[in-house]
Amino acid sequence: MSYVFHRTALGGLPVAASGQGAEIIDTEGRRYIDACGGAAVSCLGHGEPRVLEAIQRQLSTLDYAHSSFFTTEGAEELAEHLCAATPLPLEKVYYVCSGSEAVETAVKMARQYHVERGEPQRRVLISRHQSYHGNTLGALSFGGNPGRQKPYAPLLLEQRKIEPCFDYRYRQAEETPEEYGQRAANLLEAEILAAGPDTVMAFLAETVVGATSGAVEAAPGYFRRIREICDKYGVLLILDEVMCGAGRTGRFLACEEEGVAPDLVTLAKGLGGGFQPVAAVMCTSAIHETFAKGSGSFVHGHTYSAHPVACAAALAVQKVIRDDRLMDNVTARGADLAARLGARFGNHAHVGDIRGRGLLQAIELVEDRAGKTPFDPSLRIGARIKREAMDLGLLVYPGAGTVDGTCGDHILLAPPYNIDAQMVGEIVDRLGDAVDRAI
Ligand code: PLP
């Protein structure tokens, strides 16, 4: 009997008791390799002493101060650290507690920016199908995951959406990846023209798509063309790096790899590494100046924005990433992980695609490789693999396929940045066994 309203109403969850490095241990003493960091959260694994010490130090000096009355040294230092961590011109940081809040904050910031500039008619947001931006009603509206949206459809905001850039599913045989990237990006221009260019405020996309289709990178040149289109029509570019940012792909921001600077970028999971709920929006100084020279305030804020303990935890996490040069390890172990997944699943009858960047990697499951036919979603292949993997002491993050067949079930891997080569091998071995047991 549990009084907790869990995600699953069917019960049966094991009770997590402790965490050590890359493992979670339950109250029965079973150990699970946390190969997905929950939902790509635990970037340092569990129990990192330098982070625990920073949290304890902060708690013993100041537990809480409301961000409309005070700033704190931790909030200031973390913002400076984040701005220095990327070569891109992002010079202001707004704190919130979750990825959904970060996305909604970025969209509201984009909207108010246009209002401050005297363009209140800019109110259309364009985002993409097969995306995930969070579960609150605004963020759920912006996302493109029909399964998650269906019961709430009457409550959601109407949105314009374009097809994602998804090579495995949408590139035509005669196209090079570069040609495909241009074609996919040009869909944005067509959508802006259809909406009326002076009504569009922003385009929102995940740089590397996480939860909905599983570690999907854009084709080369896609985001550069997107940037050009946004600039041409005065549309702000919001990149959602809640999952792929903060070092997960081997760069602080995944968009550094594309050579593209967004106007706003969201961060969450790897920012605090799960030690505290913390998220952020980074934006250009041009956006901030517009507020400063305009009304002087952003009409927004949450009770726990810039929570001192959350900022202290995130700062400690980011310092560990810097001091231990963990982004180099993400690149090296990410290459290992991709190679091992290729060796184990490259010829697997039911693995259609292996993809990802850094330590965000996925396999897509298909009924038939040649036709790329997804499994019937009612078979819940991803969820079955997750269950088998847990039985084998491995945590992986499943994604469900879409009913219309535009994406199959997939399994997402996002192990800690400090993982070693042996653990990478163990993850792939156990995942291989779980897939064979499930299908
Ligand atoms: N945006 C992206 C890209 C995500 O992957 C997620 C969560 O998975 C979110 C937003 C929502 O974050 P949260 O669950 O912290 O609200």
From TrEMBL:
Molecular function (GO) terms for this protein are: pyridoxal phosphate binding; transaminase activity
Q: Name one GO cellular component term.
A: cytosol
Q: Which family does it belong to?
A: Belongs to the class-III pyridoxal-phosphate-dependent aminotransferase family.
Q: Name one Pfam family in it.
A: Aminotran_3
Q: Which InterPro entries match?
A: Aminotrans_3, Aminotrans_3_PPA_site, PyrdxlP-dep_Trfase, PyrdxlP-dep_Trfase_major, PyrdxlP-dep_Trfase_small
Entry superkingdom? Bacteria
Q: Which UniProt keywords apply?
A: Aminotransferase, Pyridoxal phosphate, Transferase
Look up the record and name the cofactor or cofactors this protein needs. Answer: pyridoxal 5'-phosphate
Q: Which PROSITE patterns does the entry link to?
A: AA_TRANSFER_CLASS_3
Is this entry keyworded 4Fe-4S?
A: no
Name this polypeptide is given? Aspartate aminotransferase family protein
State the organism of origin: Stappia taiwanensis
| UniProt entry tagged with the keyword Cytoplasm | no
